[in-house]
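Task: sequence design from structure.
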């Protein structure tokens, strides 16, 4: 494989070195591989099947909406991609690296914003970001440069030395996005990132993530149940009860369903599934 040439302004992991004895093995990234490829993944919790043969692709430089109601399996899927759960079926590849067989290079190319808050309210914005950078092996000086660049990008440069607990909910989410981008990932996962935010804060978050796709070439998988966050030309994957029910652009899904809009198409797709399997 050949080394990738990334477009991100914050340098990312085009190659990783691993030592074996006196030799260093360099793993090169395949630039033709999609940001995320999931093939035939199922997952169960006891007798309950949370995911059933899920396959999907997130191209580089594309915003892909994973649309599903609560309990659809979106968070379970994210936990498998991030290795919080181990997939025992199918394959999950980040930039061509299988998360089971090559977890280090796969996870090095991944940034994630979970639904629940994951930043320390008693630390400043800068402290949160530099601590996260240290976990990725980024030196203190470089970490401060990257943190300053990303905080400026999300409009929080003037709050760098404020404690996180003084921020609004929308501002906290922007810090989490900056933190997720700190190591220059090729893939960004966001799980219900706007839940609990007001309309203006939600729009600001969505716009910022779309800007990252446009400017940095990041592939984004945006998990949501909020249809108004999806644009007509966005790639959409409809997931319910662990199964993919439709894929295509929002416009294509509406046309194929014969519905008036995406909301009506989503209801038409998911209502039969809800009747088949009791909650």
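Answer:
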């Amino acid at each position: 494989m050949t080394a990738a040439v990334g477009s991100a302004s914050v340098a990312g992991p085009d190659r990783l070195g691993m030592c074996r004895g006196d030799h260093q093995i360099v793993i090169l990234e395949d630039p033709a591989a999609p940001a995320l490829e999931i093939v035939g993944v199922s997952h169960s919790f006891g007798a309950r099947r949370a995911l059933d043969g899920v396959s999907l692709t997130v191209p580089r430089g594309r915003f892909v909406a994973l649309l599903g109601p609560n309990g659809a399996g979106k968070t379970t899927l994210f936990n498998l991609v991030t290795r919080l759960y181990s997939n025992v079926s199918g394959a999950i590849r980040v930039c061509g690296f299988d998360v089971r067989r090559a977890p280090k290079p796969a996870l090095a190319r991944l940034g994630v914003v979970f639904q629940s808050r994951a930043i320390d309210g008693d630390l400043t914005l800068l402290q949160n970001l530099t601590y996260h950078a240290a976990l990725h092996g980024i030196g203190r000086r470089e970490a401060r440069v990257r943190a300053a660049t990303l905080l400026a990008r999300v409009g929080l440069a003037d709050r760098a030395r404020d404690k996180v607990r003084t921020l609004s909910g929308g501002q906290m989410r922007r810090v989490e996005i900056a933190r997720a981008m700190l190591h220059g990932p090729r893939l960004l996962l966001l799980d219900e990132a706007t839940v609990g935010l007001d309309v203006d804060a939600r729009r600001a978050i969505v716009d910022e993530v779309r800007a990252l796709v446009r400017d940095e070439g990041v592939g984004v998988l945006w998990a949501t149940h909020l249809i108004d966050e999806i644009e007509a030309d966005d790639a959409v994957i409809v997931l319910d009860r662990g199964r993919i029910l439709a894929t295509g652009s929002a416009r294509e899904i509406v046309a194929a369903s014969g519905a008036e809009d995406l909301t009506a198409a989503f209801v038409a797709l998911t209502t039969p599934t809800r009747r088949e399997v009791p909650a």
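Helices lie at 74-81, 103-108, 125-135, 140-153, 169-180, 199-216, 250-257, 262-276.
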